[in-house]
Specification:
The protein is an alpha/beta fold. It is about 60% helix and about 5% strand. Helix 4 links the parallel strand 2 and strand 3. It binds zinc ion.
Length: about 375
């Protein structure tokens, strides 16, 4: 058992990283893989292996435990839940990247969201990536190589994660104590996204929201009900993402105000408005990201339902993503031609692209719902 065991269904990537940690570690790595494939899990296991007393991410030595707890003095990790990773965070990393490790074998710098680096921030990274400290190892993560600047990509060794198989995800869930049937359902419905599969296995609310999304094809009877269903989908995504970030925002704002001496009657501190504004901007950016991510997940689910119907219509066979919705998929396959099912899948994927390109979510989802009625 090593910490690499948590990297689900990625034998090639694990062999590559474990080999590097045991031998020539290299100075810069780029770990790419789709959302939920385990980029950050792989980056953490690799980081642990680089510091581990036995170089294999044993999970038991002090170094491994500190890496897992996020307290290892020679590991710096940067990530963002917002839309971008700014220049200030990268400037702070430069002196760290150039310095020698204090206790560990390496100085490891993990940038989990390298795809969200602003161009200026990415440029700040170039020099230390090219000539880092003797014992420094950079580990960058992104969904694909196209998501990072070529100048960054060309300085890194590449590790590619694939979408883990349904069987591998189900096996992981069973190992985590989920019963076999729930694990199979959640692994398939999670479509290779390990975190999503875990939520579906454990969280009744997540299962209910998914079921509500998958009812949409039955709510397209008239233009009015289609628009209503579209609005319902966007509102549900807003509510879910707001629930995810609301409490945290309030706590952060309160603790910052307290630290700045604000909120105490009669006390005003000059120059603090900027800090509060900055936090609020970060929170808005994070909320936008969360709303988009939740909505995107819903659209992925919806596209898969039409895909399940298409498999039936074409008599292809193959395991459905939404096994619990087999009746709905069969009904769609009976009433809609294969060509029209393909157009519907396109409409859903087009909606995802529009939202990623900053089209207002409600507008994009309404357009999609209308296309799903007639397409
Ligand atoms: Zn260890």
């Amino acid at each position: 058992m090593t910490l690499f065991d948590a990297v689900v269904g990625q034998p090639d990537a694990v062999a590559q990283l474990a080999g590097a940690a045991a031998g020539d570690s290299g100075h810069a790595w780029l770990v790419v893989g789709p959302a939920g494939s385990g980029r950050s899990v792989a980056a953490r296991a690799f980081t642990a292996a680089l510091q581990c007393e036995t170089r294999d991410a044993c999970g038991r030595c002090a170094a491994c435990r500190e890496v897992m707890a996020g307290t290892h003095p020679d590991v710096a990790a940067v990530s963002t839940e917002g839309l971008s990773l700014g220049v200030r965070a990268m400037r702070a990393l430069v002196p760290v990247a150039l310095s020698s490790p204090s206790v560990g074998r390496h100085r490891v710098i993990v940038v989990e969201d390298a795809d969200r680096l602003t161009e200026t921030a990415a440029n700040v990274l170039l020099k230390p990536l090219e000539e880092p400290g003797e014992a420094t190892v950079f580990v960058l993560c992104a969904p694909s190589t196209e998501d990072v600047l070529p100048t960054i990509r060309s300085r890194c060794r590449l590790v590619t994660l694939r979408i883990p198989s349904v069987a591998a995800v189900a096996e992981l869930l069973v190992a985590e104590g989920v019963d076999h049937d729930t694990a199979s359902f959640a692994a398939a419905a999670g479509q290779g996204h390990v975190g999503r599969a875990r939520r579906l296995a454990r969280d009744e609310g997540a299962r209910e929201r998914r079921a509500a999304v998958l009812r949409l094809p039955q709510e397209l009877g008239s233009v009015a009900t289609a628009l209503q269903a579209a609005a319902g989908l966007v509102t549900a995504a807003d509510e879910e993402s707001a629930a995810m970030s609301g409490e945290r925002d309030a706590a952060e704002t309160a603790s910052l105000r307290e630290a700045l001496g604000l909120g105490v009657r009669g006390v005003t501190v000059r120059g603090t408005a900027g800090a509060v504004k900055e936090l609020e901007a970060e929170q808005r950016s994070r909320a936008t990201r969360a709303r988009r991510d939740v909505l995107d997940r819903a659209l992925v689910d919806l596209a898969a339902l039409y895909r399940d119907a298409l498999l039936i219509a074409l008599h292809v066979g193959g395991a459905p993503v939404h096994a619990d919705q087999a009746d709905v998929a069969a009904e769609l396959a009976r009433t809609v031609t294969a060509e029209a099912l393909l157009r519907r899948i396109d409409a859903v994927l087009g909606c995802r692209e529009a939202i990623e390109a900053n089209v207002a979510p409600l507008l994009a989802v309404e357009a999609m719902a209308l296309a799903l009625r007639t397409g």
